[in-house]
Design goal:
The chain is α/β, with parallel strands linked by helices and 248 residues long. Helix content is 43%, strand content 12%. Strand 6 and strand 7 (244-246) form a beta hairpin. The radius of gyration is 18 Å and the shape is globular. The relative contact order is 0.14. The structure holds zinc ion. Zinc ion binds at residues 100, 102, 153, 156-158. Zinc ion (ZN) is lined by residues 100, 102, 153, 156-158.
Length: 248
């Protein structure tokens, strides 16, 4: 976080390429050959100019395409050392994600993203709080990210814990922040943690409520969204299929 958008020391800008690869934004948006691009283009860190000319919708589309590559067992011709060197003196991430700590849902991996592409907030049950909101406000207002993505996932242990009223140290308080989603989930079958359909319905409701909480509790982000500078959206990651399903 020390390197912000005003960092003027990045003298190697010309060598930096975005996570769209050498063929740039047009390629990632499907304007030039898809499979050729995904197999052979080299991906380096996102540059200031490249990030700034993308719209929130384009960034979301890039994340969707990255997840499709992941599901096909493909990934960009990525070199982490090149990305590390390219981003060392400044960062221009396109999005800030809020996702669960679950070890099976690493956002950069499942959407084929690299170093410098996204800010990544992770907390069990992907709930928001003042510190998460502060991080998101930094990411969007100061560092220029254009998408806030809340990503839940199927078979989430935190959601199960909230349904089961699990009690453990500081975890009790965290799960209390998920419980409103348990209550608010409209579901006619068995409302238990052993019913995965219910668990996943609560997880989706929790994403929706977290998005609403972000808008309600962060005037900074709500204003950015109202002005069209950012888009706040949600997604569910399916552990079984590997698919990230965007909610809208
Ligand atoms: Zn989880």
């Amino acid at each position: 976080m020390c390197d912000g958008p005003d960092d003027s020391r990045y003298g190697d800008r010309s060598r930096r390429r975005d996570f769209l690869g050498t063929m740039g934004v047009a390629a990632a948006l499907g304007l030039v050959g898809g499979s050729l691009f995904t197999r052979y283009a080299r991906a380096d860190a996102l540059t200031h100019a490249q990030r700034d000319k993308m719209t929130p919708e384009q960034i979301i589309e890039i994340m969707k395409q990255g997840n499709e590559r992941f599901r096909r067992g493909e990934r960009k011709n990525r070199n982490y050392l090149r990305e590390q060197k390219a981003s060392a003196k400044g960062q221009y991430p396109a999005a800030v994600l809020l996702s669960c700590i679950d070890s099976r849902a690493p956002a950069e991996v499942i959407m084929d993203l690299g170093i410098g592409d996204i800010f990544n907030c992770r907390v069990a049950g992907n709930i928001e709080n003042e510190d998460i909101l502060g991080s998101m406000e930094f990411a969007c207002k100061l560092a220029g990210a254009k998408v806030v993505l809340v990503m839940g996932h199927t078979a989430c242990g935190a959601i199960k814990g909230a349904i089961d009223n699990a009690q453990l140290g500081n975890l009790t308080g965290l799960l209390a922040k998920i419980k409103p989603a348990v209550q608010a989930t409209d579901y006619t079958g068995e409302r238990s943690a052993s019913n995965y359909a219910f668990v996943d319905a609560v997880a989706r409701k929790n994403v929706e409520m977290t998005m609403a909480d972000i808008r309600k509790d962060s005037q900074v982000l709500a204003e950015l969204e109202a002005n069209g500078g950012i888009r706040i959206t949600g997604a569910m990651y399916n552990l079984q299929t590997g698919a990230v399903g965007f909610l809208g």
